[in-house]
């Protein structure tokens, strides 16, 4: 098994039920958020970032999705507590997202150290 996909833990993504399209959308969100160009609001002391689903489609045409499919992917990640969502009603309804509690599982790579240690133990045993 490949350890990482798009910078996320492959085993954790598999355990959370994410596919490559989910990971591509999550990578888009993380990269865009980190760029400093996303509209941000602090809600209950936590930073939430505006997501315009059409922008995801423009930036990731390779996904071949429609707007509703992108919405469902974000909802799936919220249901799995990878992201959190808040809807802001200011001149319309706008979805804002923050990192959820299970996101940490996707960027925890300690399993690689364990894998290498096990390999070394196997080598020493022979």
Can you walk me through this structure?
It is elongated, with a radius of gyration of 17 Å. 50% of the residues lie in helices and 21% in strands. Strand 1 (4-5) and strand 2 form a beta hairpin. It has a single domain (4-121), classed as Winged helix-like DNA-binding domain superfamily/Winged helix DNA-binding domain (Arc Repressor Mutant, subunit A), CATH 1.10.10.10. Helix 3 crosses helix 4. The longest helix has 16 residues, at 20-35. The protein has helices at 10-16, 20-35, 53-59, 67-79, 103-106, 110-125, and strands at residues 4-5, 8-9, 40-43, 46-50, 83-89, 93-99. It is built from six helices and six strands; from the N terminus they run ββααββααββαα. With 126 residues, the protein is of the alpha+beta class. A four-stranded antiparallel sheet has the order 3-4-6-5, with helices on one face. The protein has a two-stranded antiparallel ribbon with strand order 1-2.
Which CATH architecture would you pick?
A: Orthogonal Bundle
Estimate the helix proportion, in percent: 40-55%
Give the integer mean of the pLDDT values.
Answer: 92
Unreliable spans: none
Question: Strands across the major sheet, in which order?
Answer: 3-4-6-5
Write down the CATH class: Mainly Alpha
Shape: elongated
Over the alpha carbons, how many angstroms does the gyration radius reach?
Answer: 17 Å
CATH H level, superfamily name: Winged helix-like DNA-binding domain superfamily/Winged helix DNA-binding domain
Q: N-to-C SSE series?
A: EEHHEEHHEEHH
- Straight-line distance between termini: 24 Å
CATH fold assignment? Arc Repressor Mutant, subunit A
Please state the structural category: alpha+beta
What is the count of helical runs? 6
What is the total number of structural domains?
A: 1
